[in-house]
Amino acid sequence: MSSPAGEHVYSLTFFFTAQVFCELFHDWPDALTQLGHRDTIGLSPKVILHEEPIDPRSLLLLSQIMHCPYQGQAASLFLEAKVLELMAIKMANSFGSTQKRNRSLTKRELESVHHAYHLLLDQSQSAPCLEDLCRMVGLNRNKMNQGFREIFGDTVFGVVKKAKLCRAWSLLEQTDLSLVEVALEAGYKNQASFTTAFCKHFGCTPGSLRRS
């Protein structure tokens, strides 16, 4: 996949030995049960490749990992915690859980929930209200809320909030916009509400992040 000229592309890779992975996650998904075993020829371990879109929670964690605010031992602890949190999310999202396998939503309803999710990410700056979103994808309110909790582990409002905060984080790092302009671009009505939400979620103010 190519990227536009002049656009920076970042890559992060995390490595776990099979032994460490097994110690961290005692109940492996079916897809990983053979990960720690050598093949019949005995030459190399099994290789598993899985690709999927980056959800807002993972995007937030990746941003925090790439811009660790600490140094020394504090940085090591911070990064280790964030990587483990990211792994927990990917384990749950990528390979599913008993709850996901027992979903009561139909295939069409699941497709509608995914459609709604992408609409929210595309329009996070001025996201439609829940009623309008339900009407756009043809789902009722209960099914929409149920689908978001089962698939994304959050409410519709929670997904929108995280998407807005991730956008704000990127704007603070990649642009020279003022804090007021960042707040408005991210979809907040004023700087005060933006600062409150940002500080509560990231543990630091937008101004301190930019200064760091």
UniProtKB/TrEMBL annotation:
Name the record gives this protein: HTH araC/xylS-type domain-containing protein
Domain HTH araC/xylS-type, residue spans: 114-212
Gene3D superfamilies noted in UniProt: Homeodomain-like (1.10.10.60)
Domain of life: Bacteria
Keyword Transcription regulation: yes
GO MF terms, alphabetically ordered: DNA-binding transcription factor activity; sequence-specific DNA binding
The entry's keywords: DNA-binding, Transcription, Transcription regulation
Pfam families in UniProt: HTH_18
InterPro entries attached to this UniProt entry: Homeodomain-like_sf (IPR009057), HTH_AraC (IPR018060), PchR_regulatory_protein (IPR053142), Tscrpt_reg_AraC-type_HTH (IPR020449)
Lineage: Bacteria, Pseudomonadati, Thermodesulfobacteriota, Desulfarculia, Desulfarculales
